[in-house]
From TrEMBL:
Its main location: membrane. One of its GO terms (molecular function) is serine-type endopeptidase activity. Belongs to the peptidase S54 family. It comes from Microvirga subterranea. It is a multi-pass membrane protein. Residues 100-257 form the Peptidase S54 rhomboid domain. This is Membrane associated rhomboid family serine protease. The lineage of its organism: Bacteria, Pseudomonadati, Pseudomonadota, Alphaproteobacteria, Hyphomicrobiales. It is found in: Membrane.
Length: 273
């Protein structure tokens, strides 16, 4: 019997949906291009496209720029001149504009290669089942809404902050929250005789999620990691402070929004024995 000359098709090493691959390429590409910019131009880019809550406090909250500058200057010795933070506040608040687009654009900027690559790994892990579940459009809608939610929550918690806040972590946190609705749900048998993949499972109700040990462990680890990186900041792991408030804001948006955009029905409530 002659042997076929055709070789079996090889499975790709990274079998990511196009939307996830595109997102990673954009994030990595933007950070790579920034390495080609001068320090002055990159600084201006960050200032114009990152979230700076004090801008919103001045534009929408009625706070005067002089109040913020004076608070940052504090009791500094007048002979030492203006403190660096106060000088930054004077610079970013000079035009008293809100820069509303930064509620979204900050998510495309990162502070280091470690920052962008870590976010891309989590994006691949949690964005993939979401794209496979409800497609590119809803995936990008969820990501963008989570990014905005993270920016708003961060600004509410730090209204007078003048340091720029950047990174896609809030969007990724929203993806984590959305995926927790179904990734740990029990598998079902499909008519063709196979078990459902995680992205095919019916989402659980909040009460069932609260009783699901895997969900609780996942959320516990996630919140613990946010605490560690925000307040402990292990040496060698991070090179900048972590905007844990943005993570929480993005997570809450993903958790609340997902049931409204999920194309699959909810799993029937479990009846206790």
């Amino acid at each position: 019997m002659p042997l076929s000359s055709e070789r079996p098709a090889r499975e790709p090493i990274f079998n990511l949906p196009a939307a996830v691959t595109l997102s990673i390429v954009i994030l990595v590409g933007i950070h790579a291009l920034r390495q080609l910019l001068s320090e002055e131009f990159d600084f201006k880019l960050i200032i114009d496209w990152a979230v700076i809550p004090a801008r919103w406090a001045v534009a929408f909250g009625g706070v005067q720029p002089d109040e913020i500058v004076s608070g940052l200057q504090g009791a500094a010795n007048p002979q030492e001149g203006v403190s660096p933070l106060a000088a930054l506040a004077q610079y970013v608040l000079a035009d008293q504009e809100a820069y509303p687009w930064t509620a979204l654009t900050y998510a495309f900027l990162h502070g280091s290669w470690a920052h962008v690559l870590i976010n891309c790994v989590w994006l691949a892990a949690f964005g993939t089942p979401l794209v496979r579940r409800f497609g590119m459009g809803r995936f990008f809608g969820l990501a963008l809404a989570s990014a905005v939610g993270g920016a708003v929550f961060y600004a509410l918690m730090n209204p007078l902050q003048v340091l720029p806040m950047i990174g896609a972590s809030a969007a990724v946190s929203g993806m984590m929250a959305a995926a927790s609705w179904f990734m740990f749900a029990p598998a079902d048998w499909l008519p063709e005789g196979r078990l459902t993949q995680p992205h095919e499972r019916l989402r659980e109700g909040l009460a069932d999620m609260a009783r699901n040990r895997q969900v609780l462990i996942f959320l516990g680890v996630w919140f613990a990691a946010n605490y560690v990186f925000a307040f402990v900041q292990p040496i060698g792991v991070t090179d900048a402070s972590i905007a844990w408030e943005a993570h929480i804001g993005g997570f809450l948006v993903g958790l609340v929004l997902f049931p409204f955009i999920d194309p699959l029905p909810r799993r029937p409530s479990r009846i206790p024995a």
